[in-house]
Design brief:
With about 425 residues, the chain is of the alpha+beta class. It is built from twelve helices and 18 strands. Strands 1-11-12-13-16-10-9-4 form an eight-stranded mixed β-sheet. It has a three-stranded antiparallel β-sheet with strand order 5-7-6. A hairpin with a 7-residue loop joins strand 14 and strand 15. Helix 3 runs antiparallel to helix 4. It starts with a helix and ends with a strand.
Length: about 425
């Protein structure tokens, strides 16, 4: 949720900020917000004035009766009754304006940080660094051909039971996927100081609202029935751990991680990546979440991204870091780095992690605050999230980058302890 006071004080900054984020007619949007805000405050003032007049008249009724001035008492009683209706009417106007204002604000994206480049789409993203050399593979096969060739990846069986965008993994590939997730968790908890959390996979509306999935992206989610939704990422459950809480600042930053299944309808990606495991309705991911003070969040963003990069480096996978432009960032983000891994079959880099600093955008929606030591006042925390990494896409990258001419998959050195010493799959 955005701070309407900040919008009121500097509307031009919000017009420019939302225009850069792709909001149509941002000037008209801001004007509408300010009009709603004015209506809300006018109704509040009128209601408070009417309430004060009613209270004063109520006091005077007793005084009139004490003087046996029945006519005055009757007049005052009629005035009180009339003011009750006025108070109720202003209260209804306040409710309507407030609800409309909050709903409008809830559908507007975060503003970008000052160092985020302008641009409408991924073509304006900026490469910040490139690490590792892509392997020289004469005629690389994609992961689908490799997995089906080994008899360990079955899309047809998955489709018979679940439809498109699902897969069944077997034997060595199933074990390799499990090994990847365990390796990532151990790296983040043992070496990078993240606290492992076993969090719910089902959350309520307000949790999805808090991290920005609702109301705008309902079509990309799976509703589980009633008031529950399947999480699209553990970011939702991890970040909501501080919902409606006041955290002492000396306990920050909180660094949390979880390995969970994720569920996405992919409603906005029809026709994209329909082959293979790149874009699935169900996949596993190790999520990284940090809760910080405002002063810590920029440095924490760099640290979190480096923690995700460490996974790719330990696995010997070539990658690059991209700074996303304003038009390509997610709804809740104020600054985002994407990590893209080299896929030989596509001869290009593909996203495998997205690490975002959300500033206080999610904290305002969740009412998540922190308190400096020895002070009474509170302020909103900053929240950050990142993939550390998407397990399925990491499996794809390993299969394609570690393939041999016979179609076998070499197991990266870092994963062999999790594979019982196996050196190859297939």
């Amino acid at each position: 949720m955005h701070d309407i006071k900040a919008i009121r004080e500097n509307p031009d900054a919000w017009v420019a900020g939302w225009s850069a984020r792709g909001v149509e007619d941002a000037k008209g949007v801001v004007a509408g917000l300010l009009e709603l805000d004015a209506r809300l405050r006018a109704a509040q003032t009128a209601g408070q004035t009417a309430l004060a007049r009613r209270n004063e008249s109520s006091k005077l009724i007793g005084a009139a009766k004490a003087k046996k001035d029945e006519a005055e008492a009757q007049r005052l009683m009629a005035a009180v009754e009339s003011l009750k209706g006025e108070i109720a009417a202003e209260g209804e106007r306040e409710r309507e304006a407030g609800e409309t204002l909050r709903a409008t604000l809830a559908g507007l994206p975060n503003l970008a940080a000052t160092d985020v480049p302008d641009g409408e789409d991924e073509t304006a993203n900026v490469e910040k660094k490139r690490v590792g050399e892509p392997p020289a593979i004469g005629s690389p096969r994609d992961h689908v051909d490799l997995g089906e060739g080994l008899g360990l990846m079955d899309f047809e069986a998955a489709a018979r039971m679940s439809g498109a965008r699902f897969v069944v993994l077997k034997a060595g590939l199933a074990r390799l996927e499990r090994a990847i997730g365990q390796f990532m968790l151990d790296l983040q908890t043992n070496e990078h100081g993240y606290l492992e959390v076993a969090s719910p996979y089902l959350v309520r509306d307000q949790a999805m609202f808090g991290t920005g999935q609702l109301p705008k992206f309902a079509e990309d989610l799976f509703r589980a029935g009633g008031e529950h939704w399947l999480i699209p990422t553990a970011e939702v459950s991890l970040t909501n751990l501080v919902r409606e809480q006041i955290t002492p600042e000396e306990e920050l930053p909180l660094r949390l991680t979880a390995l969970t299944p994720c569920f996405r309808a992919e409603a906005g990606s029809a026709g994209r990546d329909t082959r293979g495991m790149i874009r699935q309705h169900q996949f596993s991911k190790v999520e990284l979440v940090s809760i910080t003070t405002p002063e810590q969040s920029e440095e924490e963003h760099e640290r979190m991204t480096a923690c995700a990069e460490a996974v790719l480096e330990r696995l010997g996978l070539a990658y690059r870091r991209m700074l996303l432009c304003k038009g390509d960032m997610g709804f809740s983000a104020r600054k985002t780095y994407d990590l893209e891994v080299w896929l030989p079959s596509q001869a290009t880099y593909r996203e495998i992690s997205s690490c975002s600093n959300c500033g206080d955008f999610q904290a305002r929606r969740m009412d998540a605050r922190c308190r400096p030591a020895g002070e009474k006042g509170t302020r909103f925390v900053h929240t950050l999230n990142g993939s550390g990494l998407a397990v399925g896409r990491t499996l794809v990258a390993i299969m394609e980058n570690y393939q041999d001419e016979g179609g076998r998959i070499a197991v990266p050195e870092a994963l062999r302890p999790y594979m019982g010493g196996m050196t190859h799959v297939g």
